[in-house]
Amino acid sequence: MKRYENMDAFWMPFTPNRAFKASPRIIERTEGVFCYTDDGREILDATAGLWCVNAGHVRPEIAEAIGRQALELDYTSPFGFGHDIGFEFAERLIQHTPGDLNRVFFANSGSEAVESALKIALAYQASRGKSGKYKLIGREMAYHGVNFGGISVGGLTPNRKGFGPLLPVDHLPHTLDLERNAFSRGLPEHGLEKADALEALIRFHDAATIAAVIVEPVSGAGGVILPPAGYLKRLREICDRHDILLIFDEVITGWGRLGSPFAAVEFDVVPDMIVSAKGITNGIVPLGAVFVADPIHDCILDNAPEGAVEFYHGYTYSANPVACAAGLATLDIYEGESLLTRAGGDIGRYWEDALHSLRDIEQVVDVRNYGLIGAVQFSDAAGSGKPVGGAFQAGCYNNGVMIRAMGNIIAFSPPLTIEKAHIDRLVGAIRMTASELF
Ligand code: PMP
């Protein structure tokens, strides 16, 4: 197939543009758990795109639903007008959310959904007369998208620096602890006390100034950092004790990644809001959402003047009908194929054993996994001074597998439809790449 000759106009996101364009990696076609390159190679997609194509690529049911919707009702303003498919989709979504998270605020991406959640938190505090509670607590190594609120609560230094003073926030310590928890299977045993750092932050700032705490139940882009057993429950207890909202950013952990519809369900901790995106439409059409607890929604509505807009926030494409159609078709697949719990079964155990078999590679200092997410961390010395992840990603790509790289960590989050033979292929490609690089 012809490769597009002039690549200059597209300024690619989170990409070293000049290096990429000197040596491009072009995907021409996708299907199931595979991508196909322009030079005809089959690549196993061990990252489900960007942690999003949970039901696998090119599902005709979703494509057809998108086409049908675009031919029937393509767009209408969501400000003061409605359409059936928006209400139907919201109703279907909340069948999967825990507790009283029964209200859905739609956005178009994870980043927008994060901003929406943070603003809902502040709007809620103000609506009950506590506008002094405006500070936000995030966590080191967290990724909450790239907008100003998200990078403020986010904890990845390169994404924050150079963008000015940001919002008034503070950060919990991350929970990665290789000394005590290396090669844990599932949740790490040690580190529950790291949740107590929240008590210290609250003492420092005063609960009367804090609106909400936001965490990814499992940090994805930070390198697949798992919460120590009991950690999320303890955060919930501390937030309750101090009248602070708890938000879970489940953009990655939602929709079956950990073996339940949400991490909140898997770990039996109900936050006040869940942020969702990615797998909500199987990654095919951009869509984000915030699942909001009834009392928060009700408080904001109850305290608004009769007949007035209650929340000055929303997007041209909130509940875009075509995105809702994609989402409904996606839910049909998740439910029909029991994909939301598949990672918790036999395939998840196979995944765990397969990844942990890599521990015999000399440069590997940790293997982490839960459900169908995982990471391998290499020693700082593995790349002779340079983080080895980038070279490892390139090597795996040459060896027929797409993975993610962050520093000395490589991460995987395959489509939930993955089979054992594909997992063997991933592990084989990692071994082969390690033998080439080390
Ligand atoms: N939150 C988390 C936890 C994410 O992983 C991501 C994306 N990787 C986002 C938010 C941002 O989502 P988007 O790229 O759709 O804006």
From TrEMBL:
One Pfam family this chain carries?
Answer: Aminotran_3
- Alphabetized InterPro entries for the sequence: Aminotrans_3 (IPR005814), PyrdxlP-dep_Trfase (IPR015424), PyrdxlP-dep_Trfase_major (IPR015421), PyrdxlP-dep_Trfase_small (IPR015422)
Tell whether Nucleus is among the UniProt keywords. Answer: no
Q: Name one GO molecular function term.
A: transaminase activity
Name the domain of life.
Bacteria
Write the record's keywords in alphabetical order, separated by commas: Aminotransferase, Pyridoxal phosphate, Transferase
Check the record and name the SUPFAM superfamilies matching this protein.
PLP-dependent transferases
Family the entry assigns? Belongs to the class-III pyridoxal-phosphate-dependent aminotransferase family.
Q: What is this protein called?
A: Aminotransferase class III-fold pyridoxal phosphate-dependent enzyme
Task: Please report the organism this UniProt entry assigns to the protein.
Answer: Marinobacterium aestuariivivens
Q: Lineage, please?
A: Bacteria, Pseudomonadati, Pseudomonadota, Gammaproteobacteria, Oceanospirillales
